[in-house]
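Forum > Structural Biology > Help requests

Title: Can anyone predict the 3D structure of NAD(P)-binding protein?

Hi all, first post here. I have the sequence for NAD(P)-binding protein but no way to get a structure on my laptop. I'd be grateful if someone could post the structure tokens.
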Amino acid sequence: MSTIKPVLVVAGVRAGGTGAATAAAFARKGYSLALISRGAEDLQALVDDLKSAGSDATAFPVPSYSAPSISSVFQSIHTRYPSPHYAIRAALYNASHSIRKPFLELTLADFHAAQETIVEGAFAFSQEIIRVFKENDIDVDTGKRGFLIFTGSTTSIRGNRTTSAAAPAKWGLRALSQSLSKEFGEWNIHVAHAIIDGIINTPFSRSRFNDPPNWVENEDVRLNAEDIAKAYVYLAEQPRSAWTWELDLRPAHEKW
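Reply #1:
Sure, ran it for you. Structure tokens for NAD(P)-binding protein below:
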């Protein structure tokens, strides 16, 4: 009897970041990996590293996270991981758009760019994923047809002086996740939202932040991408009698 291989789809992958760490964590659980990101060369380098570690991973570069780009890339994913040999069982929308400016310095283009990546992309991604999940059988161990998680941030629940473009988009992403969780729970589709409340130790963050001093060496004041990934695996494996919609993660000394 042939075995159906589970697939994790991740949108928003950067070396050393949450998307990459989550991909590696799910690969250790036996998942094949469909990784969506901008930046074809960097994405392929990450996939090559995963393959060298024994993972089944494929790069799916996109020019943007617009709805047309997301719809197009899913056609390629279904070709690479066809049913009935594969089944998409888990998905992470981790794409974001970092922009911090005083309100009067923002342009409509800034605002629209945040909305496109964070909200429009998530909407299109969710429609593709949930259509697939509804066709899946219910997993006997977890009671799920599929698991969909969104990566949020502090701005998902709290605006600040320079987040007038990012916060409305992140609030929208959170509202989308809650709406989907309520609508599709009765389909045994688990939808979750994670508030990442703090700085993550990634190459991108290390290139941008130097406050507080020596934050990279101090695990009390920053998050590890690998530890976030462990939390995502925990959510994916929750049984149907005890599902989490929203989980917030922060380092021990984070002020909140």
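The beta strands are 5-11, 32-37, 57-61, 86-93, 146-153, 189-196, 246-249. The chain has a mean pLDDT of 95.
Shout if anything looks off.
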